Amino acid sequence: MKSSAALYSLLAILPALINAQSPVWGQCGGIGWSGSTSCVSGSVCTELNDYYSQCIPSSAAPPASTSQAPSPSSTPPTTSAPGTSSAPSSTPTSGPTADNPWTGYQVYLSPYYANEVKAGAAAISDATLAAKAASVANIPTFTWFDTINKTGDLGTYLADAQSIQQSTGQKQLVQIVVYDLPDRDCAAKASNGEFSIADNGQANYENYIDQLVAQITKYPDVRVVAVIEPDSLANLVTNLNVQKCANAQTTYLACVNYALKQLSAAGVYSYMDAGHAGWLGWPANLTPAAQLFAQVYKNAGSSPFIKGLATNVANYNALSAASPDPITQGNPNYDEIHYINALGPVLAQQGFPATFIVDQGRSGQQNLRQQWGDWCNIKGAGYGTRPTTNTGSSLIDSIVWVKPGGECDGTSNSSSPRYDSTCSLSDADQPAPEAGTWFQEYFQTLVSKANPPL
Ligand SMILES: *[C@@H]1O[C@H](CO)[C@@H](O)[C@H](O)[C@H]1NC(C)=O
Ligand SMILES: *[C@@H]1O[C@H](CO)[C@@H](O)[C@H](O)[C@H]1NC(C)=O
C-alpha cells in the first residue's frame, strides 16, 4: 500500500495571521491570493496546495502529521439504484466558482420523484408528518437513467423544462445519473444492470449513450448536469481483486470515455462518481484515485464540460461531521469535506482541475452504521442538507440530492436474484423491496429524521 506521507505534508496547518478575516471554508492564501490571510475564530487557515489555503474549522482541521494508512477499504459500493426521479426548484445563487453550472439556473423538478413522494405522503395518516413528507416533492433530486428503456423519459423532462423556461424566463437545469454500464455494480449484486460485457455490452452501452444524447441535443437551451456511473471507477481503484471488476476494467474505461466525450460534445456538464470518504478517502487510495480520474479526464479530451467528481452518491456521510463517527476510526478524512480537500489538490497536481458535488440527500443523521462500508437502507437515516450552491467551499459547486430518498437500495429477500447480503445486516432496514422501487417505511423515517427538519 502506498504511503500517504506526500499528501499529508501538503496539509501542514498554517498559523492564522493578520487582520481582515476570511469566513469558515473561505480562501485564506495561495499564490496570487490578495485577500485576507486570517480566518474567523474557530477556524484555521490550512494550506491545501501552493495555490490554495482555506479556513477549516478547528475541530475539523486535518492532522498535520503524516498518518499511516489504515486498511483501505476494498469496500463496496455504495450504490443503488435508480428508479427515476427528479426534481425542482432550487434557486441557485451565485456559486462558489465562476463557472459553476448551477449559477443562474433553476433546477428542474421532474414529475417522477414528485409523484412517488406525493403517493408516499398520501399514505401517511399523521397529518403533520404527511405535510412534511409532501414537501419533499419540491426538493430537487437527480433522475437515474438505469435502463435504456428510460432514455425516452429524458426527452419528456427536457421538453417540459424547456416550456417552463419559455413561460417563466427562468433558465432550467436537468440533473441526471448515467448508470447503465455493462456488468454494472461489479463488486456487489443489488444493482446489477441489464447489459453484459459478454453479450455485446459495450455496443449496447454506446447505444444507450447515443439515445440520451439524441434527446439532449433536441433541447439545446436546457442545461443538463450528469453524474457518471456511480461506483464504476472507484471499483477500478480498489476492487480489481474482485474477478468481475477485473474483467470489466477495460470495458468500463472504454464506456466511460465514450459517455464523457459524447456528453461533452452535447454541452452536458459531467461529474464522475468518486465513491466517498470511507472508500477512496483512505489516504492510501487518494493518489491512485486521482491518477485514474485524471487519466480518464485527459483521455476524454480534457473538456471543460468534464467538471469534476461527485461524492457520497447514495451514501450517508456528512459533508462536515461534528466529530468523527467511530466507524471512521483511523481515517483522517472522516467526512466528505476532508475527503474533497485531500483529493482536490492531488487531482490538480495530476492535471485535472476538478470541482465537486456532494450528495447529502440521506446524510441528516450520523453514527448509524456498524461498518463504514455498509450502504444498504441504513436504519434511522434522515434527509439531509437541502441542495444548494452555498456550499462554503470553492471546491464544491453544489450540495445535491443524487439518490432519490425513499427509493430502495436493495432487497433483503434472500431468494431474489439481486439479493446482496449487505441488505440483511443488522443496520439495514428490513424487510426491503427490490433496488429502485419505493420503500414506504424507509421514506417515512427519512422524513421524520430529516435534519434540518422538514
Ligand atoms: C423495457 O421496458 C419494458 C416495459 O416497461 C419491460 O417489460 C422490459 O423488460 C424493459 N426492458 C429491459 C431490457 O429492461
Ligand atoms: C422473494 O423473492 C422470491 C424470488 O424472486 C419471490 O418468489 C418471493 O415472492 C419474494 N418474497 C417476498 C416476501 O417478496
SSE string, helices as H and strands as E: HEEEEEEHHEHEHEHHEHEHEEH
Strand content: 5-15%
User: How many strands in all?
Assistant: 13
Number of helices: 10
Described by strand count, sense and barrel closure, the largest sheet is: 8 strands, parallel
Bound molecules: 2-acetamido-2-deoxy-beta-D-glucopyranose
Outline the structure in words.
The chain is globular. The termini are far apart. 29% of the residues lie in helices and 13% in strands. It is of the alpha/beta class. Helix 4 (151-168) runs parallel beside helix 5 (201-216), helix 5 runs parallel beside helix 7 (243-265) and helix 6 packs across helix 8 (283-299). It is built from ten helices and 13 strands. Strands 6, 7, 8, 9, 10, 11, 12 and 13 form an eight-stranded parallel sheet that branches. The longest helix is centred in the middle third of the chain and has 23 residues, at 243-265. Helix 5 links the parallel strand 8 (172-178) and strand 9 (223-228). It has helices at residues 5-9, 111-122, 127-135, 151-168, 201-216, 232-238, 243-265, 283-299, 336-349, 440-448; strands spanning 21-22, 27-29, 38-39, 43-49, 52-57, 106-107, 143-145, 172-178, 223-228, 269-273, 306-311, 355-359, 396-400. One 2-acetamido-2-deoxy-beta-D-glucopyranose binds next to loops.
What keyword list fits this structure?
29% helix; globular; binds 2-acetamido-2-deoxy-beta-D-glucopyranose; 454 residues; alpha/beta
Write a brief structural summary.
29% of the residues lie in helices and 13% in strands.
Could you give the topology of this structure?
Layout: H1 5-9, E1 21-22, E2 27-29, E3 38-39, E4 43-49, E5 52-57, E6 106-107, H2 111-122, H3 127-135, E7 143-145, H4 151-168, E8 172-178, H5 201-216, E9 223-228, H6 232-238, H7 243-265, E10 269-273, H8 283-299, E11 306-311, H9 336-349, E12 355-359, E13 396-400, H10 440-448
Parallel strand pairs: 1-3, 6-8, 7-8, 8-9, 9-10, 10-11, 11-12, 12-13
Antiparallel strand pairs: 2-5, 4-5
The structure holds 2-acetamido-2-deoxy-beta-D-glucopyranose (2 copies).
The site of one 2-acetamido-2-deoxy-beta-D-glucopyranose (NAG) has 3 residues, from loops.
